[in-house]
């Protein structure tokens, strides 16, 4: 979910820092819990799947015998699917709460989180609001916080909370929303250090991230599809920056006219992998604090090409394949770290890429791919938020409350 957020994930996993434990989060999809070897939002999880295998990555050592062990020594590998409510079988280490999660909870009346939603719908402060729009928004915020509070008791890492995408172009609206969420979390005794806030990487979102980070509030910028977004996010001090590798590849297969993508293709590079590489090198060469998360990774080759990046969100099928692939003692040390602070130091950037990004320069430098994909991501988040409010309007007040 940058997740990104940095203390130990779990003593049973590794000594690496968790992007959600003190500053990270991320991912892409439906319901999200961070688990396994690790993370936004950044991570995604299905509702029910009793046959889901336990996957737990550990740092590479003398006893490592799978590809998962080997790659986990080079990047934090985050499974993007876990079993909803099945924490004993596959215990998550961090979590993301979002509108999509609320929709999933409401579709499963027997889930352990349903009481958190019902309690939100019974909140007297929200119920007393006469304006229907404000009342439903209040219910949704309370539900996010109540579920986030429950998750904070189940995971050792951070709980990332999605900020309403309808505020994506309103810097002060984002900041007010985050402050409101923080206040509500405080009322249920969830401390700020356990929290992360997931914000779309519009210019207004990036500026909100800068101001929130200056207050010590950790942010995770999502929907990053161009170098200029990544650079501006790093300059803003975002704790986690999330890039969607596969979505850029998909766009490039069906569209043309984006200079950044066409330059990568001309070099014989995958545009998504190239963007992660460039963003990583920029962050590490110039000493920014941000952690980089690669999402929408589609296969093992993608993952191998990204080794060294801070966090990689891997699909379940990739995790299973890594877990099932046995390596010999020699082979397990042959995995190559593609990204490193050393390689970043040798990377060259043009003078145009090293400017201090502002709203005008960002808007003029974003290509059609990032513009279109950002808009599509926002539309999806907005639609989910509206669906939650429409559902709450139908079921409020809840029975027996």
Automatic annotation (TrEMBL):
Keyword Cytoplasm included in the entry's annotation: yes
Keyword RNA-binding applies:
no
Q: What InterPro entries does its record include? A: Aldolase_TIM (IPR013785), TAL/FSA (IPR001585), Transaldolase_1 (IPR004730)
* EC numbers for this chain: 2.2.1.2
Any coiled-coil regions, as ranges = none
Q: Which UniProt keywords apply?
A: Cytoplasm, Pentose shunt, Schiff base
The Gene Ontology terms for molecular function here are: transaldolase activity
The biological pathway it contributes to is: Carbohydrate degradation; pentose phosphate pathway; D-glyceraldehyde 3-phosphate and beta-D-fructose 6-phosphate from D-ribose 5-phosphate and D-xylulose 5-phosphate (non-oxidative stage): step 2/3
> Protein name, please?
transaldolase
Organism encoding this protein: Populus alba x Populus x berolinensis
């Amino acid at each position: 979910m940058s997740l990104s957020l940095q203390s130990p994930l779990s003593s049973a996993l590794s000594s690496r820092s968790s992007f959600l434990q003190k500053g990270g989060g991320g991912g892409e999809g439906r319901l999200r819990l961070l688990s396994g070897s690790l993370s936004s939002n950044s991570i995604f999880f299905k509702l029910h799947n009793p046959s889901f295998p336990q996957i737990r990555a550990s740092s590479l050592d003398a006893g490592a015998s799978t590809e998962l062990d080997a790659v986990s020594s080079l990047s934090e590998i985050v499974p993007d699917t876990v079993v909803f409510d099945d924490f004993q079988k596959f215990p998550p280490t961090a979590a993301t709460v979002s509108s999509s999660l609320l929709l999933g909870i409401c579709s499963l009346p027997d889930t352990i989180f349903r009481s958190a939603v019902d309690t939100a719908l019974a909140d007297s402060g929200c119920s007393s609001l006469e304006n229907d729009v404000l009342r439903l928004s209040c219910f949704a915020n309370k539900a996010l916080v109540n579920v986030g509070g429950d998750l904070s008791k189940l995971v050792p890492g951070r709980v990332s909370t999605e900020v309403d995408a309808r505020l994506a172009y309103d810097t002060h609206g984002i900041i007010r929303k985050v402050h409101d969420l923080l206040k509500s979390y405080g009322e249920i005794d969830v401390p700020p250090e356990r929290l992360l806030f997931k914000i779309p990487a519009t210019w207004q979102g990036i500026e909100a991230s800068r101001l929130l980070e200056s207050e010590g509030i950790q942010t995770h910028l999502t929907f990053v599809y161009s170098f200029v977004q990544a650079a501006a996010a790093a300059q803003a001090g975002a704790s986690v920056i999330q890039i969607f590798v596969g979505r850029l590849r998909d766009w490039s297969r069906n569209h043309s006219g984006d200079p950044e993508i066409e330059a990568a293709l001309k070099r014989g590079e995958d545009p998504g992998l190239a963007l992660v590489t460039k963003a990583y090198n920029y962050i590490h060469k110039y000493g920014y604090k941000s952690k980089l998360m690669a999402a929408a990774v589609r296969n093992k080759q993608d993952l191998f090409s990204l080794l060294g990046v801070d966090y990689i969100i891997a699909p379940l099928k990739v995790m299973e394949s890594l877990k099932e692939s046995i390596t010999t003692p020699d082979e397990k040390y042959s995995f190559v770290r593609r990204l490193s602070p050393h390689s970043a130091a040798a990377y060259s950037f043009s003078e145009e890429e090293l400017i201090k990004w502002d709203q005008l320069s960002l808007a003029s430098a974003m290509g059609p791919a990032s513009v279109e994909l950002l808009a599509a991501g926002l539309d999806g988040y907005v639609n989910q938020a509206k669906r939650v409010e429409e559902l709450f309007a139908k079921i409020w007040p809840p029975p027996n409350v």
